[in-house]
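Limitations
The structure tokens in this dataset are predictions for the assembled complex, not deposited experimental models. Users should treat interface geometry with appropriate caution, especially where small molecules or nucleic acid strands are included. An illustrative entry is reproduced here so readers can see what is and is not provided.
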Amino acid sequence: MAEKITKRADDYSQWYLDIVQQAGLAENSDVRGCMVIKPHGYAIWEKMQRALDRMFKDTGHVNAYFPLFIPKSFLAKEEEMAEGFAKECAVVTHYRLKTIPGKGVQVDPEAKLEEELIIRPTSETIIWNTYRNWIQSYRDLPLLINQWCNVVRWEMRTRLFLRTAEFLWQEGHTAHATQAEAEEETRKILDVYRTFAEEWMAMPVLTGLKSAGQKFPGAVYTLCIEAMMQDKRALQAGTSHFLGQNFSKAFDVKFQDQNGKLEHPWATSWGLSTRMVGGLVMTHSDDQGLVVPPRLAPIHVVIVPIFRKPEEKQATCDAARKLAQALGAMPPDPWYNYEPLTVKIDDRDQHQPGFKFNEWEVKGVPIRVELGPKDLAQNACVLARRDLPGKESKMMGVPLAEAPTRIVGLLKAMQSALFERARKFRADNTLSVDTWDDFKKKIDEPGGFLWAHWDRTRETEDKIAAETKATIRCIPYEQTKETGKCVLTGKPSEGRVVFAKAY
Amino acid sequence: MAEKITKRADDYSQWYLDIVQQAGLAENSDVRGCMVIKPHGYAIWEKMQRALDRMFKDTGHVNAYFPLFIPKSFLAKEEEMAEGFAKECAVVTHYRLKTIPGKGVQVDPEAKLEEELIIRPTSETIIWNTYRNWIQSYRDLPLLINQWCNVVRWEMRTRLFLRTAEFLWQEGHTAHATQAEAEEETRKILDVYRTFAEEWMAMPVLTGLKSAGQKFPGAVYTLCIEAMMQDKRALQAGTSHFLGQNFSKAFDVKFQDQNGKLEHPWATSWGLSTRMVGGLVMTHSDDQGLVVPPRLAPIHVVIVPIFRKPEEKQATCDAARKLAQALGAMPPDPWYNYEPLTVKIDDRDQHQPGFKFNEWEVKGVPIRVELGPKDLAQNACVLARRDLPGKESKMMGVPLAEAPTRIVGLLKAMQSALFERARKFRADNTLSVDTWDDFKKKIDEPGGFLWAHWDRTRETEDKIAAETKATIRCIPYEQTKETGKCVLTGKPSEGRVVFAKAY
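Predicted assembly:
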């Protein structure tokens, strides 16, 4: 814990890795490309899951579980998907090892599968193969199903949380009787994702449509939420796909509509993953360590009793326990997903208060309570907010009786402040660009989100990406109507789109 | 839904499959040995997870996530484990497919892994390989970590929930400074499992030690909870293993103790899986369909408004909504894990009440409320309890204002009644057997749990299993002290153990 965190300004990538490591969020495993999600990182993911899962259920969705394995031939049935995922598939070819005394274990050549199985990179194929038996009549629709699971996409260049061979996510797969209803679902989920990002993660996002070059393989179109990290690069944070009838046709799923006519149902799919933990780190953290928005904090409050003598320890620890109890007894609040506030008392003997303050700062605990003999003599304590710098963060002489209410107030204030700070950061790093020279210059320096006109062709999109490494992050829903000329080709454009370098 | 459920007495196996299918719990997938857990089945598993997860956290455990893949060589490091699991391992050998236009996809022979990866059948090896970096000092101990995940054990003969190639579970993996502390943890978790089984699942269990023939490969010893299904066969429902220093030695994990001496930590592991959903079905269900203990019910109450004319529909549905609201507003109760009661109103036009009653009975909803115009005229309703037969289940003329309190009372009464019924069933089907002839006869007819003396040798255990297909389910903690002679060999025995045929 005494290790230094690299400063963002010095080496952004190393800063990120330092935070992930020193806050105890995750680490690389000895399995290539796969990470271990450590308890503090997993606790954040659990909070995310709890919040999202409730939102899915409130919008009529239920959870289910489909197999990890997908027969190779299933993938081939939807051509675009096969093309899109074939290069990243982990393939199971055998189902047995044999032990050879003194020589360890070997793959048993006699246990070769007739058809290879791939580890799901996404589950549209296995799920639509199952839906064939579940959907006969319009009465069976809509099917609104979500699954929490692990998926594998064999990545060559990985980065903890942001890009790993195995990751955890939720994937929704819905089936509808009409195109309009499926498209409405696609939008509804985008709105769930936006609400989750903004209200829980305190992460402002653009919402909009992906260009053809960026859409999901197998989708008719893809909607996304797109966030800006502190190095001004974009992070695709969640996607919602309108799949049309692509999968219902590929897997021969039909239903009888109200007029007795056989139709293919319309589909959506949508996902949000542990990548979001990386997004959380990169949106809010600072040079002192992790900063977690209070609604997703695994520990809301740490109380550090300050003592030298045994009688001081006794008195301050007693007061700490009393305060912790009072905090734990605050009425359940939807703001925390109806869970009690989590309070930690750090009464370790072997460390000095300064060491403890630093450790909990690195771990991103939103509120620190300092409780020394002098505070106690006045029935008071000191509160410190994780997101404010140095002295500004401290509130001295807070009466202990008022502390629980004040703490809840601070948690809510911090949540809003983080969101506002991130929104300002994005605004400060968003530019309009009208010429190609300007584009090429500004995409590198100062960087950020570049709003520019584009002629809506794949060709131009690819050329811009090849020359600048910037991609179209989205065609945003919220923008002022404005026609113009494509920044590269000068051809007519119906409106600006957002370019950026992305994770 | 109108399909008949096979009677238990006619064909027990088919009865089980009928329930699983018609209650919408699970189905076989097109991937050999893998099941699809359908929404109603998954909802039961979610309730189980929620209850268990809280118990783990209340006993100081935290969750984390380790990779799905295990390098083949890791498995080889602990010989007994390698021997135990090698024959059931799914093996990943390649990391890429290639698409061949018009011919689908093929495994890319150039993308062969240097070292094959197996899909985790259990995670001791990958986790202890990770712990090596996490444990240096006694201050790093204990490590109390749990993981919720999927695992794969390639099974040749599968049965939904009870034995599938892929299943979901939790696996705890703890590390301790002393043997005594690790053994205490092994017992503490067994107690968590027993409490969960008895208080949440209403499933009485024996607790005890596994014999050498039944212990977990790699464990020093295995503790278990063991339940009796309605066909009198045993189900191993959860296991807690004391691993000694087997894995810390195999993976070279050492820590400095308080005296500065380097030691290998002591380990436990423990798991409970979706198999328990099958156990729930087989413990409580009847010839009418699924019976779910109320604390784990995805839907607690179904309200069926009964109407013919539109004005009747209006009135009864209004009253149903009002009652549902009152039920939803009952204060959160630890008895339901602080979650609101789940209430469903079945106001479908196309089905008759009898059809609806039957459907919700098949799905195991604990309480049905019938609300017709005549009931409404008296501001009353009819309550029906799922676990009681026919007319006995009905309470007529329950005042609507009292219904919420009465319903909660019935839910709690039903939970206790299910437990008592299962306990009685087990008692009625438990025998003491003292001679080998008696053993051989009674293990088939009447069957059940046979308490018999055993000479504590592996040889005798294996002989009995070979001749009768009965295994030692456990050496129970709770029994009267009694010495005797082994039922097979006549050699001295220190106490009876429990034999049964098992799933």
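Some entries come with short summary sentences. For this one: The domain at 430-500 of chain B is CATH 3.30.110.30 (Translation Initiation Factor IF3).
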